[in-house]
Every structure is written in structure tokens, then in C-alpha cells.
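Let us work through a complete example step by step.
Step 1: write down the sequence.
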Amino acid sequence: MSFSRLPGACAFILAMLAPCAALADPAMIYLVRHGEKVDEGKDPDLAPQGRQRAQNIAAMLGKTGVAHIFSTPTKRTRQTAQALAQQNGLQVELYDPRAPQALVAKVKALAGTVLVVGHSNTLPELVRLFGGQPGADIADNEYDRLYQLIRGANGAVTTVLFTSLPPTGAAP
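Step 2: predict the structure and record it as C-alpha cells.
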């Protein structure tokens, strides 16, 4: 192939790949706050009830086809995410909670169902950025809210709220 044809060949390849990129947007995204934490230290571990909640979330989502799991770098979010990751043989990918748009762009480039584990002060913004409705603010003592964002064929996002057991906070 001569170099004069190279730009045309590149344009053709990009045109062929563009529909694949459009199809990559995951149809289902789950977002959840980390489980209950111990009250000690700057980066606390999960408390026993938080470890149980992580297991309950893994049981809830175990057969939903989650293919990608994202967590902030804190121990409590990683420990919450790890229960499902171990159950389904997946790796937990870390994201920076101060850069939510970078996470959204990365997730939107993926195919398959996604779980994002975050914090009470970051999840509502992530839900909005993914096109969902976060509802009321997440209270400090609320650990049971699990969002399911379903992207329809027309691109509209439906938000479904679940409660992971045991319930801890007032309903949104």
C-alpha cells in the first residue's frame, strides 16, 4: 500500500470501528456505597456488619452478569467490591473519586454490566453523570442504597433503587 492511500485506509478502518464503540456503552450499571466501617483511623476497614453487607451485595449481584468492578482506593470500598470480585473471578479496578467524569468515560467505553463502589458524597454525582436520578442525599448512617441504572435502546436511563440487607437508612 502506498503512503498516499494510508489516510483513506485509516478513515475506512475508523468508520468501521465507530459503530462498535457506540455499542460498548453498558446497558446496566450498579452503584453502591461501601459497607459499614469501623470508626478508627483515616482509612478504616469494614466493620463486621459491613463485611456481611458486602457478602449480601455479592449475593444480590452474583448472577447479574457483572463484568467490571470499580472501587475507590480506600480499604472499605475495596473490601466491599472484593466480595463480588472473588465470587465471580473478577479484578477490582481503582478509580479516583475526585475525577468522576474520567470514571464515567471509562465505563461508557465498556461492554457488559458494571458495578461501581463509592462513597455517600460521591455516588449521587456519579448517578447523575451516568444519566440517572440519585434521589435524596445519602445519609451518614445509610449503607443500604443500591442503584441500578438501565440504559434503554433510545439512550434514556431508568433508575431503580434497591435495598441491600439489612436496611439501615430511611427510604430515599
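Step 3: interpret the result. The radius of gyration is 18 Å.
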